[in-house]
Write a structure and sequence with these properties.
single chain; 128 residues; 6 strands; 34% helix
């Protein structure tokens, strides 16, 4: 039986782990490690998105973000936060940056993900 808040789970944790590993390699060039939270995984398949957010969409969003805003994100520093917004797919990813003393990198922690037009935030928005 399916929970009302979940779409038939079309994206699984293994797929998301593959995307995260790919993005880690890309963002390593600027000293950033990508982290998807459990809540992020839950929201990928959330019914409020109207359809699951596909791994390819996440990969594309972060690739465009790296190209357009990579250095800007790095300059936000260890307490930075913003929202990545894809203007085509309407996918939004609020994130925080934290310094990881073990890896000596900034962790970009994706708090959640949602497909929503006109996503409201009082913080910085990085549009791609």
């Amino acid at each position: 039986m399916i929970k009302l808040q979940q779409i038939l789970e079309s994206v699984n944790q293994a797929e998301l782990d593959e995307v995260e590993a790919y993005l880690d390699k890309m963002f390593a060039a600027i000293g950033i490690d990508i982290e998807f939270t459990r809540h992020f995984m839950d929201r990928v398949n959330d019914i409020r998105n109207r359809k699951s957010i596909e791994p390819e969409e996440i990969e594309d969003l972060f690739t465009k973000t790296y190209e357009d805003h990579g250095q800007e994100i790095k300059s936000l520093g260890a307490s930075g936060e913003a929202v990545i917004t894809d203007m085509e797919s309407n996918i939004n990813v609020p994130f925080v940056l934290r310094f990881n003393p073990r890896t000596k990198k900034l962790d970009l922690i994706s708090k959640t993900v949602m497909r929503k037009l006109n996503f409201k935030t009082s913080g910085k928005k990085l549009k791609v």
